[in-house]
Amino acid sequence: MNNEPQQSDESLDASSLVQTAVSQHRAPLLRYATRLLRGDADRAQDVVQDTFVRLMAQPPEQVDGHVAEWLFTVCRNRVTDVLRKEGRMSLFAEGQVDRLIAAEPRPGAGLERAEQHAAVLKLIEQLPHNQQEVVRLKFQNGFSYQEISRITSLSVTNVGFILHTAIKRLRQEMIAQPE
Predict the structure, then answer these.
(1) 3-state SS record for the chain
(2) 133 to 24, 54, 109: CA distances (angstroms)
(3) Distance between CA 66 and CA 156 in Å, rounded?
(4) What is the pLDDT of residues 47-78, one digit of tens each?
(5) Following CA atoms 143, 145, 150, 153 in sequence, which dihedral angle do they give, to the nearest 10 degrees?
(6) Which of 18, 64, 74, 165 has its CA at a distance of 20 to 30 angstroms from the CA of residue 11?
(7) Please, which residues have CB within 8 angstroms of residue 32's CB and are 6 or more apart in sequence?
(8) Is the entire prediction scored with pTM above 0.85?
(9) Residues 90-102, buried b or exposed e (16+ Cβ, 10 A)?
(10) Cβ-count burial of 120 within 10 angstroms (0-12 exposed, 13-18 middle, 19+ buried)?
(11) What is the mean pLDDT of residues 144-161?
(12) Distance (Å, rounded) from C-alpha 137 to C-alpha 151?
């Protein structure tokens, strides 16, 4: 006789949903939360962990088909709660962004690409906060305008306008940079 409790198909589905979500979205969520928290990786880790805890409490059918949006929205809301609770927002310290960039580039062609990438990141940091967030959600995380709209609670039109304005400014700044 087997005395072990039987797991239902529903709990297996919930478990696999969370496991898949963690493996696919943990790193992008950490980057997103770290940037929103102005480089504080420890607080970002806490926020992301709390986000996944909330996912575990969520019925799978409520997030199925839009897990990434749900995770980024909950993460963003948790960051807002943390910042509101602390009552302050601190800016990136000089050089702090350089520590956030992940892998070292390969020599040669990779070095030139890394320099360009660093220059673009530096220019993104100079954008207003809302433009930074929309640019990062679009280009670092690959979200559509509709998904960004739901994550940020902005209209799709506003997301498009903010993104257009940010890209236009980035182009102007790149052209103006000395070779």
Answers:
(1) CCCCCCCCHHHHHHHHHHHHHHHHHHHHHHHHHHHHCCCCHHHHHHHHHHHHHHHHHCCHHHHCCCHHHHHHHHHHHHHHHHHHHHCCCCCCCCCHHHHHCCCCCCCCHHHHHHHHHHHHHHHHHCCCHHHHHHHHHHHCCCCCHHHHHHHHCCCHHHHHHHHHHHHHHHHHHHHHCCC
(2) 20, 23, 29
(3) 17
(4) 999 998 999 888 888 888 889 999 999 999 99
(5) 120
(6) 74
(7) 72, 75, 76, 136, 137, 140, 141
(8) no
(9) eeeeeeebeeeee
(10) middle
(11) 93
(12) 9
Q: pLDDT per residue over 106-150, tens digit each?
A: 456 667 777 888 888 888 888 999 999 999 999 889 999 999 999
Average pLDDT, the chain: 81
User: How many residues are there in the chain?
Assistant: 179
pLDDT, tens digit, 9 for 90 and up, residues 14-26: 788 888 888 999 9
Quote the percentage of the chain above a pLDDT of 70.
79
Question: What is the C-alpha to C-alpha distance for residues 55 and 26, in angstroms, rounded to an integer?
Answer: 12
For residue 36, what are its two tokens?
């929103």
What are the tokens at 29? Answer: 């969520």
What pLDDT score was predicted for residue 5?
Answer: 42
- Residue where the block lists tokens 């199925």: 64
